[in-house]
Amino acid sequence: MPIYFRNTNTVWASVLAETLQRVGLTTAVICPGSRSAPLTIAFAQNNKIETIPILDERSASFFALGIAQKSGLPTALICTSGTAAANFYPAIIEARESRIPLLIFTADRPPELRDCHAGQAIDQVKIYGNYPNWQAELAIPSASIGMLDYLRQTIVYAIERSIFPTKGPVHLNIPFRDPLVPVPDIAVEALETQFNPEHFFAGLEPICAGESSTPPSPPLLRGGEESTMQQWHKCSKGIIIAGVSQPQFAEKYCSAIAQISQLLNWPVLAEGLSPVRNYAQLNPHLISTYDLILRNRELADKLTPEIAIQIGDLPTSKELRNWLDKTQPKRYIIDPSHHNFDPLHGKTIHLRTSVENLATILTLVPPLNKGESTLVPPLNKGESTLVPPLNKGGLGGVLTSPSNEYLQLWRNTEIQVRETIDQKISAINKIIEPKVSWLLSQILPPATPIFIANSMPVRDVEFFWKPNNLEIKPFFNRGANGIDGTLSTALGVAHRNQSSIMLTGDLALLHDTNGFLIKNKFVGHLTIILINNNGGGIFEMLPVAKFDPPFEEFFATPQHINFAQLCATYGVEHEVIEDWEQFKQKLISLPNSGIRVLEVQTDRRSDAKWRQDNLSELPTPTARSSMV
Question: What is the pTM of this model?
Answer without folding.
Answer: 0.91
